[in-house]
Amino acid sequence: MKTNLLEKIEARLPQKMATVVQEIRENEQDPEKMKLREYVSFACGHLYHGSIRHMIEGYRPAFYMSTGMDADRAGLLSSLQILYDSVSDPLVATFIDTRRATPYRRFTPFLPKLVPVLATFSIVMFTAPSFLEQPMAMLAWLFMTYAVWETVFTFSNVSFDAIGTVMSGDLRERTLYTTIGNIGRQASGMVPGFIPVALEILTRAPEGEAAIMSETNFFTLAAAVFAIIGGIAGLQTKHLKERLTSPPKEGSVISRIIQNFRLFFRNKHLLLLWSCEIPHVISRAAAPASLQFYVHSMQNAAMQSLQWTIAGIPQFLAHSLAPFFLKRYRPSRIIIACTMANGISLLIMFVIGRIVGYTGWMGIANVMIFASIGWVPSGIAGIAMRMLQLNTFDYVAAKTGQRAEATSLMMFNMMSKWLWALAALLGGFALAYVGFQSGAAEQTQATRDGLFAIFALLPAVGNLLGPLPLFFYKLEGKEFDIRMAELGAVQQEKQAIEIE
Questions:
Q1: Which pLDDT tens digit goes with each residue over 104-124?
Q2: Helices (DSSP H) in 164-295: which residue ranges?
Q3: How far is CA 486 from the centre of its chain?
Q4: Residue range of the domain that includes 200
Q5: Distance between CA 475 and CA 106 in Å, rounded?
Q6: Residues 261-314: tens digit of each pLDDT
Q7: By the 8 A CB rule, do 267 and 408 touch?
Q8: Cβ contacts of residue 61 below 8 Å, gap of 6+?
Q9: Cβ partners under 8 Å of residue 426, min gap 6
């Protein structure tokens, strides 16, 4: 029975993909329809930004400490950088939305011209020049190189996120390019998972033998690999096009900035979607304990890479099912089902782990299987969430006649970052609560059990509570179509009156 099912899937999947490609090719004759290379380029853009961001965010603190910087100073430097992020992000997004660009050239001017600059500074910020002997000089170097990188990345990433809202107004095309783009996003998140393994191989040597390279040089090499791979993918963003227009905002610079922020705060449906991030503070609080769980509880850091790989493969298959589900079910219901399935699988993992442990083969299999099962539908939920966001932008545009995607996405992301900062703080408290000792080679059994509880329970609770605001979200399905039709009729009446 299983063999027959697998054979059907293997037979139908290529056929389905061929059908989709053929349909896209046929639509290419229509200048208003997206081209196949645009879909591929959108996935490449996600791979470009995602791979570089994962490298920078995931391994920057470890690089700082590899240079000899103590943990307190590395923490201070990271805090200063977050402060810089909170200042630069709104300035960049406001500049993009406020400048007097043509309706079809609001975001494309920043893609892909910034690719070589971003790739270069992605490497430079992972270097520690030997001539900077003074700690304060090194601190200044690391801060300044990050500041330049962050500014360039923000211009590129905000433009790319915003262009994803105006590439097409057709629901089927949106679903398809968001699905394909998310595959690129997932690929960018899987690859960094192998860094702990490579770090262990290249910088750890048997006693009496020299390591192949230092940790500092390893991070520089890893950054170069990510910059090159990401840069090649990023150059493909030159094929992306803007199809949904927005008339240039009139008035002074200050008045245009006020208009942009007013559009964000008038977008109550987008704010409702952001409220889903609040319960996920509990989930993200587990992040600081994740690697520590694999290192100290499972006593093998490579298990994290293995788990990411095991989860990544079925995630790709699940992504291909997103258009199927979105065609039949409301996006909000898909998100609710997926995130709750994730939470339930983690609860099951915790219960079984308490019974069989997490170090024997049964315990390891339990963690690998149920943690991966929880991850599988996350990509579908991410695509569905993007569909809901796009609906809010269209609704505000139909209601006001204006669009401010860059400012809105920036504010959404910036407010989410504030929650993530709170989650990091709570994660530190959680580690202290279970008695985790930083720098200790061995942890007590009670601490190892506590790391497992943080690893499993906090994400479970966050996933079960996260989708609750979506029960109040109404801007989808037939109700959305009716509202848009009503707004369209109102706009036509206004235009008729203005003409008269």
A1: 788 888 888 899 999 999 999
A2: 171-190, 195-203, 215-234, 253-266, 268-275, 280-284, 287-292
A3: 34
A4: 34-248
A5: 26
A6: 888 999 999 999 999 999 988 988 887 777 778 878 887 767 777 777 777 667
A7: yes
A8: 74, 75, 78
A9: 281, 282, 285
* Sequence-ordered list of residues with C-beta below 8 angstroms from that of 236, at least 6 positions apart, any chain: 40, 41, 44, 45, 112
Same domain, 238 and 282: no
Q: Rounded CA gap, 452 and 434, in Å?
A: 10
Residues contacting residue 229 through CB under 8 Å, at least 6 positions apart: 47, 51
Residue 24 lies in a domain: no
Tokens in use for 259?
Answer: 């208009």
Strands (E) in 333-482, as ranges, are none
Asked whether residue 331 falls in the same domain as residue 434, the answer is yes
Length of the chain: 500
The count of domains in the chain is 2
Contact between 75 and 215 (Cβ < 8 Å): no
Q: Are residues 57 and 102 in the same domain?
A: yes
pLDDT digits (tens, 9 = 90+) for 343-375: 999 999 999 999 998 888 898 899 888 888 877
* Amino acid found at 454: I
